[in-house]
Design brief:
Largest sheet: 4 strands, antiparallel
Helix content: 55-70%
Strand order of the largest sheet: 2-3-1-4
CATH topology of the largest domain: Alpha-Beta Plaits
CATH superfamily of the largest domain: EIF_2_alpha
Number of domains: 2
Distance between the termini: 23 Å
Radius of gyration: 24 Å
Number of strands: 4
Strand content: 5-15%
């Protein structure tokens, strides 16, 4: 066990450093309704309403519009398949959904955050902003159809050069704690063996 502890720590450290570094682009928006939400909706209705907005932001029309606006089929086609290649919009959507999270604060008409993880920090921010822009455009059409809502961008996504994943500090801390527990267990076994011989 005493020999296993440093080996486990070393293995986890090597594993963490071989993982691809992912960067987050996070944009935050507010959906504004024609009257104060508290006057029209109770907490459960508000939750349903905000979940609907989150699902709308995750929907194919919004994501596909963002993908087309950034010309991701051509960009990712070159990146993943070589020069001159183009991916289908549906393929781009599947790639995008793997690193996408859209969340609203439960029980409030509060902000919705759009978080995109990519290996390129600039691209992560661009995609998060493109999704919020596509969502605003979609709601602008619904306003014309008699559903008055407005989307305010509270915080546009900016390029963040600090990796969001892997979390090296957290990973190394967990590895160190596991190694320490193994050392303590090994020392405990050795002491137990010494006492039993007496």
């Amino acid at each position: 066990m005493l020999l296993a502890a440093p080996m486990i720590f070393l293995a986890v450290t090597l594993y963490l450093f071989t993982l691809p570094r992912l960067f987050a682009g996070t944009a935050v928006v507010n959906v504004v309704f024609p009257e104060p939400a508290g006057q029209r909706y109770d907490a459960s209705a508000l939750d349903r309403l905000m979940r609907t907005q989150v699902e709308l932001m995750k929907s194919a029309p919004v994501l596909d519009a963002a993908i087309r606006n950034l010309d991701l089929p051509a960009r990712w086609g070159r990146q993943f398949s070589g020069a001159g290649s183009t991916l289908a919009v549906q393929q781009c959507r599947q790639l995008l959904e793997n690193g996408l999270s859209i969340d609203a604060r439960p029980g409030t008409a509060g902000p919705i955050s759009v978080r995109v993880l990519r290996q390129d920090p600039k691209e992560a921010a661009e995609i998060a902003n493109a999704i919020t822009a596509a969502y605003r455009e979609l709601l602008a059409v619904s306003v014309q159809q008699g559903e008055p809502r407005e989307v305010q961008v509270v915080e546009p996504a900016e390029t963040d050069l600090r990796p969001a994943s892997p979390n090296l500090i957290q990973g190394l801390t967990i590895a160190a704690v596991l190694a320490l527990l193994l050392v303590l267990a090994g020392v405990g076994l050795i002491l137990t063996g010494v006492r039993s011989r007496r």
